[in-house]
Design brief:
The chain is mainly alpha-helical and 209 residues long. 59% of the residues lie in helices and 10% in strands. It has one domain: Dehydroquinate synthase-like, alpha domain. It has a two-stranded antiparallel ribbon with strand order 1-2. It has a two-stranded antiparallel ribbon with strand order 3-4. α7 crosses α8 and α8 runs antiparallel to α9. The structure holds zinc ion (ZN). The site of zinc ion has 4 residues, from α8.
């Protein structure tokens, strides 16, 4: 999360840090803010969409709201998780594909938020192929991510390598990759997906695919 960390019942958000970040790192931070829309709050996504130019220009009032709302949603998800286990996994939306990009390129080549941004595009395509969301939703999220100056096209690692990297990820259980998918706009869950569908998504979303 942008300039923020979570501890039980204490959320600290440092807005001064945000204003001094280099542009690439700032956009990478925005990725984890955008994430909260599709997984939990479409009204927030709509607000981000409407105010994206101002957010990218680091308008302090807009940033304060973006960070506050992100912290609120994160706290709510983690709070629910204390009673009903598993929900906090949705905070990893975009991270299964994203971690594969980071590991495949070598850590540090893409910033974490950049890999997550592209991973969210890929996970939304997977959600569409699972018939959970429509093409308009995928296009909308992709446009927001692109307008936040984040990558929407994956590096050409090859589908096979991508799948191998995702199987090695610590969240894969007995080689079964589990993805955070959008069940419907504003709601997410974790589930496995057929390799063939994942392969299609990787090929569709890769630079030379
Ligand atoms: Zn992350």
């Amino acid at each position: 999360m942008v300039g923020a960390f979570y501890q039980p019942r204490v959320v600290v958000c440092d807005l001064d840090t945000l204003s001094t970040l280099p542009p690439r790192e700032f956009s990478a931070g925005l990725a984890e803010v955008i994430k909260y829309g599709p997984i939990a709050d479409m009204a927030f996504l709509e607000w981000i969409e409407k105010n994206l130019a101002g957010l990218v220009a680091r308008d302090p009032v807009l940033l304060a709201h973006a960070v506050r709302r992100s912290c609120e949603i994160k706290a709510a998800v983690v709070g629910v998780d204390e009673r009903e286990s598993g929900l906090r996994a949705i905070l990893n939306f975009g991270h299964t594909f994203g971690h594969a990009i980071e590991a495949g390129l070598g850590y540090g080549k893409w910033l974490h938020g950049e890999a997550v941004a592209c991973g969210m595009v890929m996970a939304s395509h997977l959600s569409q192929r699972l018939r959970l969301v429509d093409a308009a939703f995928v296009e909308r999220l992709t446009r927001i991510i692109r307008d936040a100056k984040l990558p929407v096209l994956a590096p050409a690692l090859g589908a096979q390598r991508f799948l191998e990297l995702m199987r090695l990820d610590k969240k894969a259980e007995a080689g079964e990759i589990r993805f955070i998918v959008i069940d419907r706009p504003g709601s997410a869950s974790m589930r496995p997906a057929p390799d063939a569908l994942v392969r299609e998504v990787i090929e569709h979303c890769s630079a030379t695919g």
